[in-house]
Amino acid sequence: MATFHFTRKFIERCQDFICNNPRIAENPQELILRAGRMAVYILSEKFGDCEDPEETPLENEPSGEFREETIPIRIPDKDVQQVRRLIRKLGLGRTVINFYYFATWMVLLGIWKLPEKPPY
User: Is the residue at 82 inside a domain?
Assistant: First the structure.
């Protein structure tokens, strides 16, 4: 699993969204993960499969000092690889974390409707 650091303000917005939509996700990590998976699905449907036989590295994820307090969110490696291939194919941003910010904001703003989780 890869760990990405999201700003506290962003995580608070996610938490507010979850409070108003409890059937969408149980916590910000689940919301971010589901939004990212939906974005990969939507963009792959629109622009085609993002299989890339050559695994060339993207620009490194930001590391080091953060200006704002951040919250670590863990994302499965399989999802990270899918996002990297999609970024590479579409030129949609430069880092994986930017993709997850984009995907989650699309849900938070109501542009994309994340379906409710199926009952267990």
Answer: yes
Residue 88 to residues 54, 77, 81, 109: CA-CA distances in angstroms? Answer: 11, 16, 11, 25
DSSP letters spanning the chain: -EEEEEEHHHHHHHHHHHHH-TTT-SSHHHHHHHHHHHHHHHHHHHH-----SS----SPPP-S--SS-EEEEEE-HHHHHHHHHHHHHHT--SSHHHHHHHHHHHHHTTSS-PPPPPP-
Query: Is residue 87 in some structural domain?
Result: yes
Check if the beta carbon of residue 14 is closer than 8 Å to that of residue 8: no
Please state the pTM of the whole predicted model.
Answer: 0.83
- Distance in angstroms (rounded) separating the CA atoms of residues 32 and 119: 19
114 and 38 Cβ atoms separated by less than 8 Å: yes
pLDDT of residue 48: 78
Amino acid at 4: F
Mean pLDDT, rounded, for 46-58: 61
Answer yes or no: is 118 within a domain. Answer: no
In terms of residue numbers, what domain contains 20? 2-108
